[in-house]
Amino acid sequence: MEELQEALKEKGLITSSLPEKGRCLFTTREFSPGEVIISENPYVCVPNKNKESPQSKCEWCFSSTSLKKCSACHVVWYCSSKCQRSDWKLHSVECNILSKVDKGRLKSLTPSIRLMVKLCMRRKLENEKIFPTFATENYKHVEALVSHMSDVDEEQLLLYAQMANLVNLILQWPDSQINIKEITEFFSKLACNAHTICDGELRPLGTGLYPVISIINHSCLPNSVLVFEGRQAVVRAMQNIQKGTEVLISYVDIAGSTLTRQKALKEQYYFSCVCSRCVKLGQSDDIKESAILEGYKCKDSKCDGFLLRGDGALLLTLGYIHFDLIFKFFCSSEVISLALSYLIADNKGFICQQCGLLRDKEEIAKITKEVKSISEKASMSLSCGRILEPVYLDKFICSYLIKSLKVMPILVREGSP
Fold first, then answer.
1. Model's pTM, two decimal places?
2. In this structure, are residues 24 and 215 in contact, taking their beta carbons and an 8 Å threshold?
3. Strand pairing class (296-297; 306-307)
4. C-beta of residue 195 within 8 angstroms of C-beta of residue 210
5. DSSP for residue 178
6. Helix 258-269 × helix 180-193 angle, to 10°
7. Which H or E element spans position 229?
8. pLDDT above 80 (res 391)
9. CA-CA distances (angstroms) from residue 11 to 6, 39, 135, 227?
10. pLDDT over 90 percentage in the chain
11. 35 pLDDT above the threshold of 70
12. Is the pLDDT at 395 greater than 50, yes or no?
């Protein structure tokens, strides 16, 4: 890892280790807002096909235009001979493997499986000195990634093992060159460390593994942001970052409430965030922030009260469902009223924490659906190149929101009831 430290030193960075976090990335100089802190090409990557982006994509640049399928394996697409040449060193090996795979088995070739196949191939090529290694690009950095195997449940471990067996069947390598147990662990590493590669409009294009950038830890108050310029991952400073400061990005949507963020982090990355924002969980400021992010205003225009989504299960998780615990953990009558409204809202609807007015779930859901429909029409019109109609729709949305503010979510979020 000394080579990595030297390479990072030239960029004004250094890795360190903290007991409560593990590896961290720190600055050794000051960074200005917008400045590139670090950039990295993917160690391995694959294009994705999903509901948001169902079309085939170029294996190298993720373009969806002028595509031609590889004539040998009939799996991989390229938009140009330039992209094909750029990817050939790795794909020439993969192509030979995929050409021998049974057509029925090719249907099981998901992006995750292909990513693992590519990872195994690149390691083999590096060991055989066919694929070059660099200070910031070599298999040692993949090995150093955390897998959280001890935190993964048995059902997920079984799935990883089945996927590892499929990789083994695809590669058809001797037992001396492949380790099923190791591949199973690497699937767990991918789940925690792989990144979704997005375009400028945050539409998912592919999945990539960036081992050095994966060193960067999470915060719900990040000082940096991860963006993608083509297939390259770029971390830029969001504010002035002083020398000796840890570089932090967000792994989840920071527009969610503390409970929402903590749930996502625990399920995907197996840790609980203790940043300055998360330690306020349950406090008055956190309740108000959650109301702005995921809450509903009272139906009464004269009332300034609010309520959050009626999810009694969350309160059960936190242990606030019992009144003695409510009084033990909270002194504020405002918070107690909110907790009580949660209990009622879970069955009957949504109760204002200030005036006690009941808001029916179905009515809120109807309004949310209407506004979402209008927003989608505006978005569709913009994407189709029509200019006048979106202007009208934007005005309509604004007037509708002003009229409906007292009965609808403060911020309409996908998945809201």
1. 0.76
2. yes
3. antiparallel
4. yes
5. -
6. 160
7. strand 224-229
8. no
9. 9, 10, 13, 18
10. 57
11. yes
12. no
- What does the block give as tokens for 75? 């799996």
Distance between CA atoms of residues 403 and 213, nearest Å: 46
Asked if 238 and 33 count as a contact pair (C-beta separation under 8 A), the reply is yes
CB proximity list for 162: less than 8 A, separation 6 or greater: none
Residue 347 has pLDDT above 60, yes or no: no
**Minimal CA–CA distance to 397: which of 416, 415, 414, 381?**
381
Provide the mean pLDDT of the chain: 80
- Residue from 313, 298, 364, 312 nearest 343 by CA: 312
Cα 382 to Cα 78, 197, 377: the distances in Å are 29, 24, 9
Helices (H), 176-218: 180-193
Q: How confident is the model at residue 90 (pLDDT cuts 50, 70, 90)?
A: very high
CA distance 110 to 108: 6
For the packed helices 154-171 and 111-127, what is the interaxial angle rounded to 10 degrees? 60
Question: What pLDDT band is residue 185 in, cutting at 50, 70 and 90?
Answer: very high
- The candidate with the shortest Cα–Cα distance to 89, out of 137, 45, 131, 43, is 131
Quick check: 132 pLDDT over 50?
Answer: yes
Exposed / middle / buried, residue 103 (Cβ in 10 Å: 0-12, 13-18, 19+): exposed
Residues 6+ apart with CB under 8 A from 254: 220, 221, 222, 261
- Give the pLDDT confidence score for residue 342 in this predicted structure: 45
252: phi then psi, degrees, rounded to nearest 5: -130, 175
- Residue 223's φ and ψ, nearest 5 degrees, are -100, 0
Predicted confidence (pLDDT) at residue 72 exceeds the cutoff of 60? yes
The tokens 């660099």 sit on which residue?
134
Q: What is the pLDDT averaged over residues 387-415?
A: 39
Give 12-17 contacts, CB < 8 A, sequence gap 24+.
12/37, 13/37, 13/38, 13/247, 15/215
Q: Which of 41, 50, 40, 11 is nearest to 27 (CA)?
A: 11
Question: If DSSP codes are grouped into helix, strand and coil, which group holds residue 256?
Answer: coil
153-185 CB burial, b ≥16 within 10 A, e <16: eeeeeeebeebbebbbebbeeeeeebeeeebbb
| Residue 190 identity (one-letter amino acid) | L
From the list 315, 179, 181, the residue with the least C-alpha distance to 259 is: 315
* Cα gap 28→13, rounded to integer Å: 5
Amino acid symbol at 316: L
d(CA 131, CA 122): 7
Residue with tokens 């969806």: 64
